[in-house]
Amino acid sequence: MKMSRAIKCLVLIGFIITVYGNSTIAESDSNHLLRLTEDVQKENGHIEEWTVHTRERLNKQEMKKVALKLQEYLSEWTFTADEKDDKEVFSASHSTGKLRQQFQIVSTGQQEGHYFLLYTVISTDEDQIRTFMKREFAKNYSQFFQESTRVFTCIKGSFDGTLKGVLSKQFSGLINGWKAKKLEVVSEENFYSLSAYSEHFNQGLPLPSHQMNVQIGLRKNRSGAKTNFVIGTPIITTEY
What are the coiled-coil residue ranges (predicted)? Predict the structure, then answer.
């Protein structure tokens, strides 16, 4: 099912603010991933995927240094280089069990020679992502990113029950537990999206009129017996 125009706008706005806004940089806090996990499990949610993502803008000189450092520091990883539509993508990836890591250097396709360094970790196993976040994430992060570069966290899964039922029970339980202030809502027959601010999550993402630091997307499952969810801090960085 394709996202509605309103949902696409929310995702696009989030990416624009994240990538280009100078005021979006804050201390990374990967503990948010574990907080989301525990709170959703208290509401009997079934988590299927955990994602951690961070990005940083580079100039051409910085890009070359980072590319060399990636090859030196991650010598056992798989490296690829692609070019499409005047954009270059240099990738380093590595998988262990049900956890996958990927670094990417992506060109903007502009003459100014701007690049982005992306680091993404995706896992479908809770024990493995917990161990990784405790022992390895900070080490890899500190090797390639400034200390203030923001970390985005996201979980995906499902709740038992219809969308209407989940909104009145599990969703309300999460919002009340976080004492979250609702900021932007998109409500459709089979979809619900909320952007909010909660003091339970460190620092907000500055917007023109307010701050936000958590997003929830709920969508009716095709079977009708479950409701799929995506929850991210400070924003969801994938389509939902």
Answer: none
The type of residue at 91 is S
Q: Is 233 helix (H, G, I), strand (E, B) or coil?
A: strand
Our separate counts of H helices and E strands in the chain read 7, 12
Residue written as token pair 């990636």: 70
Q: How many whole angstroms separate alpha carbon 46 and alpha carbon 44?
A: 7
- Amino acid 147: pLDDT: 83
Residue 27 has pLDDT above 90, yes or no: no
Would you report the helix, strand and coil content of the chain in percent, each value rounded to 5? 35, 40, 30
Specify burial of residue 174 (Cβ count, 10 A radius: 0-12, 13-18, 19+).
buried
- Over residues 121-149, the mean pLDDT reads 93
Label the pairing between strands 46-58 and 78-84: unpaired
Q: Choose between 220 and 30: higher pLDDT.
A: 220
Burial group, residue 197, by CB count within 10 angstroms (0-12, 13-18, 19+): buried
Say which residues have a Cβ less than 8 Å from residue 86's Cβ, sequence separation at least 6.
Answer: 107, 109
Domains and CATH numbers, the chain: 5-233 (3.30.2030.10)
Q: What would the pLDDT profile of 54-74 be if each residue is shown by its tens digit?
A: 999 999 899 999 999 999 999
H helical segments located in the chain: 5-20, 31-42, 60-73, 126-135, 137-144, 163-166, 172-178
Whole-number Å distance between alpha carbons of 101 and 140 = 10
Gyration radius of the chain's alpha carbons: 18
